[in-house]
């Protein structure tokens, strides 16, 4: 299976501003009730979570929930099978101590989807294999991931020629044994264009740590988490925010793409040989916000870790090289945060090694490698 050449990572992170690299902040209580919009009756056991973090809880039998969270700005997901999901922007600066009441509207279409009996032919399983490869990834971590219920997936390769589209009738639960998490992933959209290898996916993940691990297994998991973090987009954005890309092992070079006169519609890469400082990429506005701002492309080499055998392909000869990626801003400027997230999920286009690492290599935005050190 060919590796995709480009992926626009619309993993909807939202505004996860923790105001620093560690979690040593005051814990605040976010509480409320989930109820039916039409009847006003409480909905028991609804899922409430802060997207792309480890902060999540289920409402009790009376629809009530309480969640301790650090200071910051978040996107909250409220979800229950049979109801339309709700996305709520939450700032702890405006947190209501009396709590919130969230009203969900019934979704007849979703209930119908769950009840449909799907005859799964060989094409369905081929599409499932493609979805696993391009969504979970083909890295060591991605290959070990497992969907806990594949029956909720809707795999569509008929409505648009050459395109595989995937949705899910409920929260997609993914077991990631290598990183010690279960992901509860609210899949909004997945699109794979076979001809050009273009992959686009969107969703809201919650990371649920495995609390059953032995000490020995926990240490192994922490090592694997740190390995997944090193060289990732999250690591890169954090280092750019801090101005420590060189110390963190990243080498940045300017990359220009110019039209290829011999191949109309194609381009030629022109790479500037001399590196430049990440400080040239960021500015601070009048409000003190850190803004990422550059044109063209940035060629990124991570020198502290070699590319994996899975990325190169086991049949490919030769020595493994450094991890090489390309990033491009889709906006004139983009606000970035200390935890490695950014304000607009459409804001960054990534190619190369970082793009190859998918959901199987994701870590929550509250992950801090330093907190795992003895």
UniProtKB/TrEMBL annotation:
Gene3D superfamilies listed in its UniProt record: Carboxypeptidase-like, regulatory domain
Domain of life of the native organism: Bacteria
Record keywords: Signal
Any one Pfam family match given in the protein's UniProt record, by short name: CarbopepD_reg_2
Keyword Signal: yes
Signal peptide: 1-26
Protein name: CarboxypepD_reg-like domain-containing protein
Species whose genome carries this gene: Algoriphagus locisalis
């Amino acid at each position: 299976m060919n590796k995709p050449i480009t992926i626009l990572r619309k993993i909807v992170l939202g505004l996860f501003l923790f105001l620093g690299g560690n979690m040593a902040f005051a814990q605040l209580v976010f509480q409320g009730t989930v109820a039916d919009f039409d009847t006003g009756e409480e909905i028991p056991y609804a899922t409430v979570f802060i997207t792309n973090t480890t902060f999540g809880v289920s409402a009790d039998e009376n629809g009530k929930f309480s969640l301790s969270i650090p200071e910051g700005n978040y996107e909250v997901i409220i979800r229950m099978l049979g109801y339309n999901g709700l996305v709520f922007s939450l700032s702890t600066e405006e947190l209501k101590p009396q709590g919130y009441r969230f009203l969900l509207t019934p979704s007849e279409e979703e209930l119908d989807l769950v009840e449909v009996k799907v005859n799964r032919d060989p094409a369905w399983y081929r599409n499932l294999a493609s979805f696993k490869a391009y969504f979970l990834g083909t890295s060591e971590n991605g290959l070990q991931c497992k969907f806990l219920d594949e029956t909720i997936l809707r795999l569509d390769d008929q409505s648009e020629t050459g395109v595989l589209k995937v949705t899910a009738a409920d929260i997609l639960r993914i077991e990631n044994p290598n990183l010690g998490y279960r992901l509860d992933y609210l899949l909004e959209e997945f699109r794979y264009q076979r001809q050009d290898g273009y992959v686009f996916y969107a969703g809201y993940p919650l990371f649920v740590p495995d609390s059953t691990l032995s000490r020995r297994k926990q240490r192994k998991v922490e090592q694997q988490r740190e390995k997944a973090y090193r060289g990732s987009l999250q690591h890169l954005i954090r280092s750019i925010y801090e101005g420590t890309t060189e110390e963190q092992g990243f080498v940045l070079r300017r990359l220009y793409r110019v039209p290829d006169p011999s191949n109309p519609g194609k381009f030629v890469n022109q790479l500037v040989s001399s590196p430049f400082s990440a400080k040239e990429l960021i500015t601070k506005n009048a409000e003190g916000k850190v803004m990422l701002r550059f044109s063209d492309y940035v060629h990124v080499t991570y020198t502290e870790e070699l590319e994996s055998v899975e990325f190169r392909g086991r049949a490919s000869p030769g020595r493994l090289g450094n991890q090489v990626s390309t990033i491009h801003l889709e906006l004139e400027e983009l606000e970035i945060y200390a935890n490695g997230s950014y304000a607009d999920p459409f804001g960054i286009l990534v190619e190369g090694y970082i793009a190859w690492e998918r959901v199987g290599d994701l870590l929550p935005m509250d992950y801090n490698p330093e907190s795992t050190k003895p």
